[in-house]
Amino acid sequence: MHWPMPVLVFLWSAAFVLYVLIGYPLLLAAWARGHAQPIRKEFFPRRVSIIVPVRNGAAWIESKIQSLLLSDYPEGLLDILFVSDGSTDATNQLVAEYPDSRVRLLALEGGGKARAVSSAFQHVDGEVLVLTDVRQSFHPAAIRYMVSCFADASVGVVTGELVIREGNNQEEHNTGLYWKYEKWIRRNLNRIDAMLGATGSIYAIRRELAVPMPDDILLDDVYLPFIAAFKGHRIYFEDEAKAYDLPTSLNSEFWRKVRTQAGVYQIMKHFPALISPLNRRFIHFLSHKLGRLFLPFAMLAVAISSFWLPEPSRVLMLSLQAIFYGLAVLDPVIPEGSPLKRISAVIRAFVVLVAAAACALTVFIRPARSLWRETQVSAVQGK
Description:
Helices cover 47% and strands 14% of the residues. It is α/β, with parallel strands linked by helices.
């Protein structure tokens, strides 16, 4: 049977969207159930240096320090280095005057996160380096759990789990919902030793694998883990090691997603073997990372090709898409608590995050550092 080209475009594009969002995650979960590759875990005390790159993070400094110093870890084997990337608020003063010798400050002129982290490597002596951001608090046992994973000689990087607290509204709730979906995929990738990076707010790396990065790198939590992976080491997801963060607005999540998706283009440039069928992570990188980048264009192809579908498919597909995108547009004016809000808010969050993948292309026409935006968080009721 000969299918008209618009029909083929529609079918292939729709199939691609369904594969990236549903098909691949389900196939991955099925594969992980039967091919798990566990590691050996045992706690041996090791000297740990914690690196906290920060720019104008005065509001979070004290709580971050307290969170880290309360870690269930031998005091004499723990030190904390705050790397201030051109801060203009009270960040430098708060760190420099903190009354604990384990807390140190490295003040730099603004050069970006990658340069700040790379500079820190020259000022720490821990056998294990823990990298984290200033806003998130650690569970007291988080560092101990991560260090325990290095008992397995194959492990080069250990990433913890970022837990997003429940938000005050549907928009913030959906941000957390996205993270739960993402972590489900990561857990399955972890089971088969196919992790594609770490979580920037909580991960650890062996000191000898921590190499200087290009200054414009947007994803240190992908670049450094792949350095380790291509040297034969495993990236491991230890979900007992937890960091906690406040929910973010959809606007902040949009800009974070633009940055992370733009960072994927950089990663392909620095690790071209990832897109080689000979690489064992090829199918996962193709399906999970590249698939997300191509998703907005596949959805656009679905929408355009729908106009040339035969009746009654044309009217049906166009109507369904009009309702779908219409709910995304109307979501901001739909009242909180409305039953419809539970649907529209999810759709809007999905559309915004897909649009971010398309905007990531701007990394080719503007400086990478311009893609950084300050994350806006809100206090959570009852926390």
